[in-house]
Amino acid sequence: MRLMPCVSSLSLMSILLLPACQRQENPPARSEAAPAPSPETRPATADDQDQAEARAIAKEAYIYAFAMLENYNTLYKQVATPEAPEYVGGFGRFRHYSELYTPDNHDVVTPNNDTPYSWAWLDLRAEPWVVTVPKVPEGRYYVQQWVDLFTYNFAYIGSRATGNGAGSYLIAGPGWKGDKPAGIKEVFPSETSLVLTLTRTALNSPGDIANVKEIQEGMKLQPLSSYLKTPAPPAAPQIEFPPYDAEKAHSHDFIRYLNFLLQFTQPTNPDEAGLMARFAKIGIGPGQPFDATALSSARLAAIDAGVADAKAAMAEKAKATLSSNGLFGSRAFLKNDYLTRAIGAEKGLYGNSIEEAWYGGYVGDGNTLSMIHFSKDALPPAKFFWSVTLYALPNRFLYANDLKRYSIGDRTPGLKYDADGGLTLYIGHASPGKEKESNWLPAPDGPYSAVGRVYGPSRAAIEGNWNLPPLQPVPTPTP
Predict the structure, then answer these.
(1) Which of 112, 115, 82, 85 is nearest to 98 (CA)?
(2) Which H/E stretch holds residue 344?
């Protein structure tokens, strides 16, 4: 019930008392039915309280589910949709991209354009899988980022984490209790039985593609039984994937998708047992059916209101989130902060953990020619390399331009540093002039976002003591 201001409350009380006195002195000739109390003044009923609770749970559950829903969008296209251009061939197979991303690639929003991607999904229900990597030449950066259905980064293999040497590693699903097999360098346990690797291999120049291909082709995936040369266990049941529909996934029907995905997160993390019991009150549970048409209008309205509340909370959080610090990592790192997990997925699905890569960025309008100026002592602090990549808004895909330049950084051919050792980059729809085009990142004639990435960031960047300089308009020359 809404609380009213004190003056209004007193006035209302006076009005209510006055007719009672009049009835004692001058009883009315006939009785009349009292008007029904308005929703704002009537006492809350048990049903009101039930729907208010459903709304609160729906808000919490949608925020919890958001990153998983974005992840499922990729999973459905890459594993369950052979006709999709993003299809990788099903579970247990690498699909390697040996060239840089272009505006035609829509596998994921805000794609990294520095390192060609290799994608693979594993189904760990029947048994663990072994990933084998080749020896990678020193000076060549690569990383295998392993992500679970929650979008937690649960394992890293590569230049920073394990070095550039050859080796085999075990990816194990929830509940696997085996010993580390001979020849396996490390076992990486996952909380979910469906997992993804987004592998990145640095491409140093267009003429470097053959070297990247050789490294990619040396990466192997095989079930543990195949690696050990033992009989395979019984196959897991076939998965019936619900078709991904973005509109439904971000409405009350998010519950249907969440229930499907929760089947592959069993057993439930002990930290979430109470949360799952609460979610069950609105029909959320592993493998449970969800039919919105079977709900009462009041219950459906409560869930819809909760989804709207969640989207509003995410919008507020997004406005205040200006860097990647704290957005991506393991469950232990994120400490079950589901709102932060959701914002990470919204701003850059499959972002690396901070120790692997630092992210920051800008939002601008290409109709204004802008610049980013790094002083000599504040250049991006990268152990491996750094870049700034531009995306058109609102789709967050690479922007098509005549230069075919989608990112710029310390490996960009012809990049010109200032006379004092600093660096000035230009972003805009119009060229900054021929003498500055080597440092120009073309933008649409409208809104864009530009994402800075620092691979192997310094401690100063990780701890927030280094940040990108501001995006500033290029001064107009004085006539």
Answers:
(1) 115
(2) helix 338-348
At residue 352, the 3 state secondary structure works out as: coil
CA 265 – CA 175 distance, rounded (Å): 10
Which structural domain range is residue 307 located in? 46-68+239-355
What are the residues facing 170 on neighbouring strands?
A: 130, 187
Is residue 259, in this structure, part of any structural domain at all?
Answer: yes
- Has residue 107 been placed in a domain? yes
Asked whether residue 128 falls in the same domain as residue 223, the answer is yes
Count of all residues that appear for the chain in the document: 479
Full-model pTM? 0.82
Query: What residue type is assigned to position 452 of the chain?
Result: G
User: How far apart are the C-alpha atoms of 363 and 365, rounded to whole Å?
Assistant: 7
Same domain, 171 and 199: yes
In a shared domain, residues 122 and 50: no
Hey, what are 43's tokens? 């006492």
DSSP letter string, 64-112: HHHHHHHHHHHHHHHHS-TTSTT---STT--EE--S---TT--SSSS--
Residues 376, 318 within the same domain: no
Residues 302 and 167 in one domain: no
Least confident of 15-19, 278-282, 426-430, 455-459: 15-19
Domain assignment present for 204: yes
Q: Using the 3D structure, point to which of 196, 228, 260 is the last residue of a domain.
A: 228
At position 369, the amino acid (one-letter code) is L
CB 385 within 8 A of CB 457: no
Collapsed DSSP state (helix, strand, coil) of residue 244: coil
What is the residue type of 180?
K
Rounded Cα distance between 387 and 98, Å, is 19
| Total number of domains constituting the chain | 3
CA-wise closest residue to 282 among 270, 291, 271: 291
CB 331 within 8 A of CB 191: yes
Q: Which amino acid is at 399?
A: Y
Q: Is-contact 350 145, C-beta < 8 A?
A: yes
336-364 confidence digits (pLDDT tens): 999 999 999 998 899 999 999 998 889 99
Residue 129 in any domain: the answer is yes
Kindly indicate the confidence band of residue 87, based on its pLDDT and cuts at 50, 70 and 90: very high
Per DSSP, what are the bridge partners of residue 184?
168
